Amino acid sequence: MRRRTVGSAAALAALALTLTACGGSDEPAGDAGGEETSAGGGETIRIGIKFDQPGLGFKDGDDYTGFDVDIARAVAEKLGYGEDQIEFVESPSKQRENLLQTGQVDMIFATYSITDERKESVAFAGPYFVAGQDLLVAADDDSISGPEDLEGKNLCSVTGSTSAQRIKDEYAAGTNLLEQPSYAECVTALTSGAVDAVTTDDIILAGLAAQPANEGKVKVVGNPFSEENYGVGLPQDNERCEDINTAITELIEDGTWQQILDDNVGVSGYQANEELNPPEVQACA
Ligand code: GLU
């Protein structure tokens, strides 16, 4: 019913003004505002995603692509939200808890690992995927085959991630950790020679390695050393967790989950760990 129609921004803005009858606005016609107004006046849902993780959460002009994004769309549809009722909001690793706690997003699908520490401030549905922390190195570097080889090396990861935290907790001795706001910035540091390796989840590294600009320059080591259970971040005391878990289970059972994974992640050559995927959802707290 609420299929997105193709039209000029001005036509859409005019339509929105007519339908919502909010007269008196002198907004220029080209500026429909950041708010997604559904034709029926129904409520919108704000979903936090990554904007710069190709294959997972990626902003491509006005479009959003990736496994997290398509799983989010499919779950939102089962919750009753059409595509035109979704507003995607960038959710960098270190801002996720805050975005949920302050109500700036309703839920987060952003390679967001379920951890006990995070559960102190937010809630999780899922998991809907299990990845593993790995390393990205220069294509011709054979000196690093796992986290034990990081001594004396310069490593890049992202502030507020489990990836950076695990290095600090378990492998910090002798490793120089540079923290950046996003993994894309870490890959730039790697290809420019500023660091020797980038660490985060293997599925994220595979997507970055497959970018045309990085192809042939970098490689994923392929020796995962953690289990990252990707959850749907929610505010504590939410009423959606059970419904989201049901939606995820249905998507796995009817093959949609596999299709979404193949469509988005297949191109990077990444192979999901089949012993851990697809995962079974955990009981909502
Ligand atoms: N899954 C890990 C985490 O939630 C690393 C990926 C990320 O930073 O989004 O911290």
Care to give the gist of this entry?
This is ABC transporter substrate-binding protein. Helix content is 29%, strand content 21%. The chain is of the alpha/beta class.
Number of domains: 2
Uncertain stretches: 1-41
Q: Tell me the strand order in the biggest sheet.
A: 10-9-11-8-12
- Span of the ends, CA to CA: 35 Å
Mind describing the biggest β-sheet? 5 strands, mixed
Give the oligomeric state of the chains in this entry, treating copies of one chain as homo and distinct chains as hetero. Answer: single chain
Please give the number of β-strands: 13
**Overall 3D shape:** globular
What is bound: which ligands? glutamic acid
Structural class: alpha/beta
Strand content: 15-25%
H and E string: HEEEEHEHEHEEEHEHEHEEHH
Mean pLDDT: 88
CATH superfamily of the largest domain: Periplasmic binding protein-like II
